[in-house]
Protein: Class I SAM-dependent methyltransferase
Amino acid sequence: MKTATSTQRDYQYGFSEKGTAMYDVTGRERKAHTMVAVLQSHLGQDLQHLTLLNIGGSTGIIDGHLAQHFQSVTSIDIDQAAIQYAQTHFSTDNLQFALGDAMELGYDTSSFDVIICSQVYEHVPDASKMMQEIHRVLKPGGICYFAAGNRLMWNEPHYNLPLLSILPRFIADQYVKVMNKGDHYYEKHLTYWGLKQLTHRFTVHDYTARMLRSPQKFGIDYMVKPNTIKGKLAQFLSEHLLWLVPGYIWLLEK
Structure:
């Protein structure tokens, strides 16, 4: 298996084996519920006539939920163990799983109505190439649900280390090693402005602020509880200092 370095990143294989998050049924189903709620808010309640591609679907828990709402769901990942798990545990006529490369999607141009790209961009060797492929396989007027972390975050969730994502790469590598979290820091997060550049081919519908205003409607009240200090701070940042929000939910329209 190839490994990545700070200067040249290769594929991040076996991600599902690095922890239990990809097998957390409650957590993954919550994410799927939010995806559906956001897409219904934008596209209307009936999604049953739409085709969907999930990039980086991993163990299939999210896809099992999405398949209840869409005409068809195709889920790809480079993680062979995760795909095998998905194929074993989720089986419906409108759901299929396959090994696939986010930077070289093996589908025809204008193939899908909706694409899910949730917390994936920081894991691929070339996020720009992935976004080119997403734009290519989306139908005209199609929507990509894009969930993305901000480099300017207090805590890096993959390693649970404060300020890791904002450090220069060579320092971040040493930080990860010293804290016994790995051999190097693989993920590459972008700032708000970097994410805007990454998605420049699309019309961006930013759902971040409206979700924080109505966390129950979008199923994120387990993370951001209404009328709490954390909830009010998050809402303030999303409305006045958007570049400091730790994560974003954007709908990218082709």
Remarks:
- The beta strands are 51-55, 72-77, 95-99, 112-118, 138-149, 155-156, 161-162, 203-206, 247-253.
